[in-house]
Design a protein that fits this description.
Largest sheet: 8 strands, mixed
Bound molecules: flavin-adenine dinucleotide
Mean pLDDT: 95
Distance between the termini: 46 Å
Strand order of the largest sheet: 4-5-3-12-13-14-11-15
Structural class: alpha/beta
CATH architecture of the largest domain: 3-Layer(bba) Sandwich
CATH topology of the largest domain: FAD/NAD(P)-binding domain
Low-confidence stretches: none
CATH superfamily of the largest domain: FAD/NAD(P)-binding domain
Helix content: 10-25%
Order of helices and strands: EHEHHEEHEHEEEEEEEEEHEEEH
Shape: elongated
Number of helices: 7
CATH class of the largest domain: Alpha Beta
């Protein structure tokens, strides 16, 4: 291994790679080690909604969500110039189904989408974007390869040990040293070896695609408590709509279950009857990384000087990646983070509120 990097990042999902670029911009030398190929796990399974205003999100996420969303236009512009791979938002508008009692703020679904199920379903119209993570992934990878970041794939980290002046890292390719270490391994988190009460566990999500129904063809995302539909307008899935997603506590099992996939399609058809009997074109699953309070863990591990974690982004890792990368890079360099991080400090699990 060449000269000791300032920072070693384990994990080459969207969280690890956006952090690597943020640290590289600050002139730190960065080595990324990934167990498998880069951007091959949750980060390419995602629907790609930038769901800042999803009522299912914990309130503590709002400031980081807005901040992260605000960084997306510059991130996409820099990918387009640096990587020459065009990535743009696929949709700009989301209809969020609300309880039928929300008559003061919401409009009847049927008034906005004439093919929707008749009845008293009400929706809020949100200016929220989505993008295709499978378009973002190759562009991000080209940008990483064009930077000074070193990326070693198929190199899992086995364990990490902090010494007075460095971090010693055991990998499948031998031992190495770094100044600082960041755990960005998503659902495979290494941090519980240092802080057992910081549990980051996989939550399986199954998804499917169908031909885009007429109601969503102009680029509207439709989302309820039970299901979401995200049309792809351009790229390799143009003309298809993603329907997702299950949330399952199934360990590292990624198998697909026909019954659950059909239940998702039925939930979608209950909102948009045009989807009844729609042919399923594709199916897949991914593992979201979830902490006990469903908020990310971002920052230094308690009792440590050199070990950091950026994981547990659960249902919002695509939305939160650029913001998480910036605030973690800022706090690693002793700068004031752009948004307060106390809700995300890993130490909250060492000292849970009584
Ligand atoms: C079905 C589904 C739908 C989703 N929809 C959305 C959405 O619409 N919007 C949104 O914002 N988010 C969404 N998400 C969530 C989002 O995908 C995740 O929060 C995000 O991708 C997590 O990124 P990550 O980099 O932490 O993890 P991952 O992308 O899983 O990457 C983990 C990395 O760690 C590596 N690794 C594992 N173990 C080791 C080790 N020991 N040593 C070195 N490397 C290791 C892996 O090889 C991989 O490179 C969805 C997720 C799923 C599953």
């Amino acid at each position: 291994m060449k000269q000791r990097p300032d920072v070693c990042i384990a994990g080459a999902g969207i969280i690890g790679l956006t952090l690597a670029l943020a640290l590289d911009r600050r002139n730190l030398s960065v080595l990324v080690l990934s167990a498998g190929n880069a951007l091959a796990e949750a980060s390419v399974a995602a629907a790609g909604m930038l769901a800042v205003n999803d009522p299912e999100n914990p309130a503590e996420l709002l400031a980081l969500s807005h901040y992260s969303r605000s960084l997306y236009p510059a991130l996409l512009a820099s990918l387009n110039t640096r990587a020459h791979v065009p990535v743009s938002f696929q949709t700009h508008s989301t209809l969020q189904v609300l309880p039928s009692t929300a008559t003061d703020i919401a409009s009847p679904l049927h008034a906005l989408l004439p093919h929707a199920a008749p009845g008293d379903l009400r929706v809020l119209s949100l200016a929220e974007e989505s993008l295709d993570p499978r378009e973002l992934a190759p562009a991000l990878l080209v940008a990483v390869r064009a930077s000074r970041v070193r990326l070693h794939t198929t190199t899992p980290v086995h364990s990490v040990h902090e010494t007075a002046n460095s971090v010693s890292i055991k990998t499948v390719a031998g031992d190495m040293e770094a100044g600082l270490f960041v755990d960005c391994t998503g659902a495979w988190s290494l941090s519980s070896a240092h802080l057992p009460s910081l549990r980051i566990v996989p939550r399986k999500g199954q998804m499917l695609t169908v031909p885009t129904p007429a109601s969503l063809a102009q680029g509207i995302v439709l989302r309820s408590h039970a299901v979401y539909m995200v049309p792809r307008l351009h790229g390799s899935r143009a003309g298809q709509t993603l329907i997702g997603a299950t949330i399952e506590d199934a360990g590292f099992d990624r198998s697909l279950d026909d019954r659950q996939l059909h239940a998702l399609l039925e939930a979608a058809a209950a909102l948009l009857p045009e989807l009844r009997d729609a042919p399923i074109l594709d199916t897949w699953s991914g593992l979201r990384p979830a902490t006990d309070d469903l908020l990310p863990a971002l920052g230094r591990l308690p009792g440590s000087r050199r070990l950091f974690v950026a994981s547990g982004h659960y249902r919002n890792g695509i939305l939160l990646a650029p913001g998480s990368a910036e605030v973690l890079a800022q706090s690693m360099l002793g700068e004031a983070p752009a948004v307060p991080l106390h809700a995300f400090t890993p130490g909250r699990f060492a000292h849970p509120p009584s």
